[in-house]
TrEMBL record:
Record's keyword annotation contains Oxidoreductase: no
Catalytic reactions of this protein: a sn-glycero-3-phosphodiester + H2O = an alcohol + sn-glycerol 3-phosphate + H(+)
The name this protein goes by in its record: glycerophosphodiester phosphodiesterase
Uppermost EC category: hydrolase
Length: 743
């Protein structure tokens, strides 16, 4: 079937509160909107910090804490290791809940569980000290012996509770001034009065037990992992219903991305039996906090366990308990990406990584979100003192509180030139990792590009090639040494380790590595951190992300070696189309473009899906499916007028090797443009070029900065020449430079 050549993108699926109705066009939209678009731009308007080394009154703490970042206990009083939950006191002050202390039962017996009343002296555009003042505190205690298991201070009259007794993580306040607290060792729900006294025995969880549960029977297998209990707890506005949320997945759940929201009736003192499922972006992500904004609507923090530049997901989503997707998960809508918050007043600038404009909260434990009465969001962190050092390596993180205004702004006129994050933002993070894709999104890419290969059990994963010796740590894994083999891939002999010889579960044990360490040594700092993502995870990240012009981020998947994978019985096309359909990305206006260097699978896809297709064309050689079929046509034949007309019968665009558009002269400089862009446009095809990289060795001679092949040159200059020649979009390892140039 013949396709429309117009490139259009689906407006981001945001609620009215977050994004005004979308207009056609915009970057990558085949036609701009001079008026821009109304979008919500989370903006930092106030910030305050508390020194990581602040000591509150009380007995020494941290005698058994693990030394880190130049700090070693015991400390001369009670440390305040950030806040894992907060309550708005309504008078400019807040109650901040510290967790169990130093990370485990074993090292936190001298840490007293408390709620601190804190007063931020906000730094704003008008000034302010930017400091958190710590006032009175409430000690959690059990003088009435509601707890029937042994505690550290069992024999004392007050029975002050410690981090060896309970792991408190989340808090809400009832209308009568009492507090309900979510806990992880049980997990339990705790009810304390305004003085911190336990009012009733800890409420056991109906869903199971953790390894630290004091009621665990001999031989009983806990179904909740350690420290994966009630990190999040929300309350209905009238205080009648509580919504505790499991931080992690149940051990025996086959869907390890599932987190469960429960409902507890405080009047009845029991769980109601109602539950909801929330899906994280990856198995290891956590639900850090929750806040109920209205009837059935919750704000949820989803975060990873990385910190500083390694951070990938530090987000706030809105869910409606009345809305689920076809798989039964709550529909989630992005409210705040805490890795990109506008900071026009540069509040906190100079305080370390992520404190310029944009501002980021790249801490490991992003664990507090509260919506204030004026609609602004309060966000804060638990700093796991003294272990976290997200801002300044080697220096413990301060406790931070920040106010975020969800202000509506009009975006500038969007460029008509599409920017594709090539393998993510592979100039800054190891390619084909969620970190690379998230970086590309933060850098204003319109599309992210996963190359797709298959596992032994038929799951599509993102790798540039099916040979993974250079992009993972597989060569250092002795358990997989025997998997090294030599294969013929598209007529070429390749030795290494191949995805089709590993199940997904086996691949999950590997970690990504920088493919070009000599060229991009800074990227090697992230070696060993990230998993190989599945197509499903890449699509999930994109469809829950918003580009800089307010549109849903697109996905530009490439099917790698389709003829080869067909020969193994691991066809790429069917699972790709099925996954797009499952994620609601199979419509004509979906922000998806499927690309391939082969022709036959694109013709097949043309009859299988309504999304747009792009024929990739290399500077030399021929599509492998044509070689196998004995067809003498080469890539050069595909870009003749006749070849382009044939492509237009099954595809919407072409992805061209740069030299086909503007060849280089003998001295390495750019020559005169060829007719290929003009001819492609006449055939009704969009033209996207690849690959635009900033290092000198990849640039034409006139845009190199020096003789150092790995030094950055003038990538923007090269891009301007190609855009001036009529190119409609580009693949770049450096989407920040590309977006700034074409925008």
């Amino acid at each position: 079937m013949r396709r429309s050549a117009a490139v259009t993108v689906l407006a981001a699926a945001m609620t009215v509160a977050l994004l005004a109705p979308a207009t056609a066009g915009g970057r990558g939209g085949g036609g701009g909107d001079d008026r821009g678009r109304h979008v919500v731009q989370p903006t930092l308007v106030a910030r305050a910090t508390l020194s990581a080394d602040f000591i509150a009154p009380g007995p020494p703490s941290g005698a058994a804490a693990t030394p880190a970042n130049g700090r070693q206990g015991p400390f001369p009083g009670q440390v305040v290791p950030g806040f894992s939950g907060m309550v708005d006191a309504g008078d400019g002050t807040f109650w901040g809940l510290t967790d169990n202390g130093f990370g485990s039962k074993a090292n936190s017996a001298d840490f007293l569980l408390r709620l601190y009343r804190v007063t931020p002296d906000w730094q704003t555009a008008r000034g302010g000290a930017g400091q958190i003042q710590v006032g009175e505190f409430i000690s959690l205690r059990d003088p009435d012996r509601r707890i029937d298991f042994p505690i550290v201070n069992d024999a004392t009259p007050d029975r002050l509770l410690t981090g060896a007794d309970l792991d408190v993580e989340s808090v809400v306040r009832a209308k009568d001034g009492t507090f309900w607290i979510g806990e992880e060792f049980g997990p339990f729900l705790l009810h304390v009065d305004a003085s911190g006294k336990l009012l009733a025995p800890p409420v056991p969880f109906v869903g199971g037990k953790s390894p630290q549960n004091p009621y665990l029977e001999p031989g009983e297998t806990p179904n909740i992992r350690a420290s994966r209990g009630f990190e999040a707890l929300a309350s209905s506005r009238d205080g009648r219903l509580l919504y505790p949320i499991t931080e992690g997945a149940f051990v025996d759940d086959p869907q390890q991305r599932r987190r469960t929201i429960y409902e507890f009736d405080t009047a009845a003192g029991s769980y109601t039996g109602r539950t909801w499922a929330y899906q994280t972006h990856r198995d290891a992500n956590l639900v850090g906090d929750a806040f109920m904004t209205g009837r059935g609507e919750l704000l949820l923090i989803e975060r990873d366990d990385f910190e500083g530049p390694a951070s990938v997901v530090k987000r706030v989503y809105r869910v409606d308990l009345r809305r689920t997707d076809p798989d039964g998960y709550l529909t989630k809508t992005l409210v705040l990406d805490a890795l990109k918050i506008a900071n026009p007043d540069r509040l906190g600038s100079g305080d370390g990584y992520g404190t310029d404009d944009p501002f980021a909260l790249p801490v490991q434990s992003f664990e507090t979100v509260v919506q204030l009465r004026d609609g602004r969001l309060l966000i804060a962190n638990d700093n796991n003192y003294p272990g976290n050092a997200a801002r300044i390596p080697g220096t413990p993180d301060d406790t931070e509180m920040a106010l975020i205004d969800l202000r509506t702004v009009r975006t500038p006129h969007a460029s008509d030139v599409t920017v594709v994050g090539h393998r993510g933002a592979s100039g800054y993070r190891p390619e084909h990792t969620l970190a690379s894709y998230e970086t590309a999104i933060l850098q204003c890419a319109d599309y992210i590009e996963p190359d797709l290969v298959a596992t032994k059990d038929g799951v599509l994963v993102a790798r540039h090639e099916n040979e993974i010796g250079g992009t993972t740590d597989v060569a250092a894994r002795p358990e997989f040494a025997a998997r090294q083999v030599t294969k013929v891939i598209d007529g070429r002999s390749v030795t290494g380790w191949f995805t089709e010889d590993f199940t997904l579960a086996e691949l999950r044990t590997l970690r990504a590595r920088e493919r070009l360490p000599e060229v991009r040594p800074a990227n090697t700092a992230f070696d060993g951190l990230y998993e190989i993502p599945t197509l499903d995870e890449v699509l999930d990240l994109a469809r829950h992300s918003v580009s800089c012009d307010g549109r849903q981020v697109g996905v530009y998947p490439e099917t790698k070696h389709p003829t080869y994978f067909d020969s193994l019985g691991l066809s790429l096309e069917e699972p790709l189309v099925a996954q797009l359909a499952a994620d609601g990305l199979d419509g004509r206006r979906a922000p998806v473009i499927i690309q391939s260097f082969e022709t036959g699978n694109l013709r097949q896809l043309d009859s299988m899906t309504r999304v747009r297709l792009a024929q990739l064309v290399d500077c030399s050689g021929a599509p492998y499916d044509l070689v196998v079929a004995g067809d003498p046509r080469t890539y050069r034949d595909l870009v003749t007028r006749r070849g382009l007309a044939e492509i237009s019968r099954y595809a919407d665009g072409v992805g061209l090797c740069k030299d086909l558009m503007i060849p280089r002269t003998a001295d390495g400089s750019l020559g005169a443009p060829t007719p290929v862009i003009r001819d492609a446009h006449r055939a009704g095809l969009e033209v996207h070029g690849w690959t635009f990289r900033r290092e000198n060795q990849f640039l034409p001679a006139q845009f190199r900065s020096s003789a150092d092949p790995n030094a950055p040159g003038d990538l923007a200059g090269e891009i301007r020449v190609f855009v001036g020649a009529g190119m409609d979009g580009l693949f770049s390892d450096n989407p920040d430079i590309a977006a700034a140039t074409v925008g």
